[in-house]
Design a protein that fits this description.
alpha/beta; 10-stranded mixed beta sheet; 12 strands; 2 domains; two-stranded antiparallel ribbon; TIM Barrel
């Protein structure tokens, strides 16, 4: 294994141990190194005083702890922090492939709870939802498992993480091998339980049915956005031709197999998918299913034809679902003055 960062070596314990021994360390020093970084969150070699100095000095020369660089960041008034992280391009080592990672502090009193970390899984996105900035430049490549791990380590350096949502840039089910590998390490060594991690997908039915029996280390959220097939073909182009009922049936299978309820995500686009007909039809489709709905008022994106709905319209939509017996909550996005829409910071950087 030819690694370029310490985080990459964490996925091959034998290679990590061999690397430490080649620098004058002992096998148990590899375990200490894992505990220092993954367990304790120590992000510089100088602070790893339980390792021999010669080992630290040698690693410092050859192995940065993370493979990524922070290229830009923005911090909102509520301390939501969005990072633009650059990973070396496999095709051009002088260029960086960029993704966004967002650290969202809890609104509870300081010290009572950690933050939620929003993590990306691909460089760009192939789904190309027209209201989302993430897919405007298409898909460049999948992230490797260590590049997904890097985002957790970079986010934890900002502050404690108590939850994670895999709903940044990219479609996780189209890079599932790396996503699964990274999340299992995060679950086992960073200590985030499966019920503290939510993976968001547009809901490829065959992939959901394949993943469900594998005891996945996460909760599932499916981005639905409309109850009408023809409209979903427009709003989620990558799923064109896939009936919504097939996706819902795959969600039912997920619950039956894992015992975990589905969250259906619904971005409310003012004047597009927020009508009474949309709400009542969605309520009928979901009635009796073990699920809940997360309503997300649209975040403004530059040059977008879509609008953010008014607060009273959002509440009317939520109330209609509740009347149909569907549990629904509203997630007003944080950090709106700080490029809150997914992919916005990356898009602005590319434009610059």
């Amino acid at each position: 294994m030819t690694a370029r960062s310490l985080s990459e070596l964490f996925f091959d314990p034998a290679a990590l141990a061999a690397e430490i021994e080649s620098r004058g360390g002992r096998p148990f020093h590899a375990r200490i190194l894992r505990e220092q970084v993954l367990g304790a969150g120590i992000m510089d070699y100088d602070s790893m005083t339980s390792l021999p100095g010669r080992v630290r000095d040698s690693l410092r020369v050859d192995f940065p702890i993370l493979s990524c660089r922070e290229l830009d960041s923005s911090v909102a008034q509520d301390q939501t922090t969005k990072l633009l992280l650059g990973f070396p391009s496999p095709e051009d080592q002088g260029r960086h492939d960029t993704v966004e990672t967002v650290h969202i502090p809890s609104l509870r009193a300081k010290g009572e709870a950690g933050a939620t970390l929003c993590v990306s899984t691909q460089v760009g996105c192939p789904v190309a939802c027209p209201f989302c900035a993430s897919g405007r430049a298409g898909l460049s490549r999948n992230l490797a498992a260590h590049e997904i791990l890097d985002q957790f380590l970079a986010g934890r350096a900002i502050g404690k993480i108590s939850r994670s949502v895999i709903m940044g840039i990219g479609e996780p089910l189209l890079n599932f091998k790396a996503v699964d590998q990274a999340l299992r390490l995060v679950h086992e060594e960073l200590g985030l339980g499966a019920r503290k991690i939510t993976l968001s997908t547009v809901g490829f039915p065959d992939r959901l049915r394949a993943v469900a029996p594998q005891e996945p280390p996460f909760q599932l959220a499916i981005s639905l956005h409309t109850p009408f097939d023809t409209e979903r073909d427009v709003l989620v182009p990558a799923m064109k031709g896939t009936p919504i009922e097939e996706i819902l049936e795959a969600g039912d299978f997920w619950f039956e197999t894992t015992g975990r309820e589905i969250t259906y995500e619904y971005v409310l686009l003012g004047g597009t998918n927020d009508s009474r007909e949309h709400a009542s039809t969605l309520g009928r489709r979901l009635h009796g299913r073990r699920c809940n709905v997360n309503l997300i008022p649209f975040n403004p994106v530059s040059d977008s034809d879509y609008n953010r709905p008014r607060g009273e319209e959002v509440e009317e939509f939520r109330a209609s679902l509740e009347e149909a017996g569907v549990v629904a909550t509203v997630r007003w996005s944080r950090g709106l003055e700080s490029d809150a829409a997914c992919g916005q910071l990356r898009l602005r950087a590319a434009q610059r």
